[in-house]
Write a structure and sequence with these properties.
The chain has a 7-stranded mixed β-sheet with strand order 1-4-3-2-5-6-7, with helices on both faces. It has a 3-stranded antiparallel β-sheet with strand order 8-11-12, with helices on one face. It has 2 domains: about 1-160, Rossmann fold (3-Layer(aba) Sandwich), CATH 3.40.50; about 165-325, Lactate dehydrogenase/glycoside hydrolase, family 4, C-terminal (L-2-Hydroxyisocaproate Dehydrogenase, Chain A, domain 2). It is of the alpha/beta class and about 325 residues long. It is built from 8 helices and 17 strands.
């Protein structure tokens, strides 16, 4: 086990939030980036990394620990012993099969679900009260399988969902319209993958409906431009993987946004992937819709105005995910 130079028992809580422990399972590119982002943002005072590769996890922890001086006060630990996750407030599961260039997220499912059959019972045994966030792809199917395997309450385990996809959508809109991305409000719903749905009908820019924004000017997003943006968002991960082998920076920051909402009990509305029971007639599937996220995990799913085409697309996405889950016995 490797430890940073600031012992956790010397850390004093700030702002009444307490000393939170974030456990990251998997010290690969996504897991290490998630741990790094948590430390530099000060989201968790204590970050632990677990990986079966002892040499890899020790190296990542040492690299992070050597920069602790330049971060908000915190500590970082790492081990190949799953006991390091004991007592964690939130566990982010990033371990899984690596997506290869040209490989869809669904093609990853079999190997990753097999890993979850072993991993989840071990994690629940050492950290039964933690909130679990699944990051591993294909995240929707893996989240559904992890829920069944773990036996955890549906609020306590969810997936990172389309938080990243929605950020990609907002970035593309902001670039094309020449506005700050924080003034763009738009969601991707459904699968974190090829069947995901951009909800244009309720998207806004600075309070103006997106379909009316910049009418008659270069800022207007015509139907053709919206189709181009949607294609960019769906294919962006494949483009990044083809160029550098993995996506890690944006998914790390998206993950930290969700983790912050949990550990600080923000009640933030985020499109995470969780088990739906009757969302506009959709149930028995994990997929992303706007959801209130707080210290208990996921709470209410919010109704999102959609036109008939978008609603049909969301239902088709749900059917697709159910079919994939059935292929693996869930």
């Amino acid at each position: 086990m490797s430890q940073a130079s600031v012992p956790s028992d010397l850390i004093q809580p700030a702002g009444g939030t307490g000393v939170h422990t974030l456990a990251v399972v998997g010290a690969g590119s996504v897991g290490a980036t998630l741990a790094y982002a948590a430390l530099i943002r000060g989201v968790a005072r204590r970050v632990v990394l677990y990986d079966i590769n002892a040499e890899k996890v020790r190296a990542e922890v040492l690299d992070l620990a050597h920069g602790i001086e330049f971060m908000p006060m915190g500590s970082v630990l790492g081990s190949d012993d799953i006991e390091i996750c004991a007592g964690a407030d939130l566990i982010a599961v990033t371990a899984g099969a690596k997506q290869q260039p040209g490989q869809t997220r669904i093609e990853l499912a079999g190997r990753t679900i097999d890993l979850m059959r072993t991993l989840m019972p071990q994690l629940v045994q050492v950290a039964p009260d933690a909130v679990y966030m699944m990051v591993t792809n294909p995240v929707d199917v893996v989240t559904y399988a992890a829920l069944q395997i773990s036996g955890l309450p549906a609020n306590q385990l969810f997936g990172s969902g389309t938080v990243l996809d929605s950020s990609r959508l907002r970035h593309s809109i902001s670039e094309r319209c020449g506005v700050a991305v924080r003034n763009v409000h738009a969601y991707i719903v459904g699968e974190h993958g090829d069947s995901e749905i951009p909800v244009w009908s309720s998207a806004t820019i600075g309070g103006t409906p997106l379909t009316e924004f910049g009418a008659g000017t270069w800022r207007e997003l015509t139907e053709d431009k919206r189709a181009e943006i949607a294609e960019e968002v769906v294919n962006s991960a494949y483009t990044i993987i083809a160029g550098k082998g993995a996506t890690n920076y944006a998914v790390g920051m998206a993950g930290i946004r969700i983790i912050q909402a949990v550990l600080r009990s923000e009640g933030a509305v985020l499109p995470v992937s969780s088990l739906l029971t009757d969302y506009d007639g959709i149930g028995d599937v994990c997929l992303s819709v706007p959801t209130i996220v707080n210290r208990a995990g996921v709470s209410d799913r919010l109704p999102l105005p959609m036109n008939a085409r978008e609603r049909d697309g969301l239902r088709a996405s749900a059917e697709h995910l159910r079919a994939v889950a059935r292929q693996f016995g869930f």
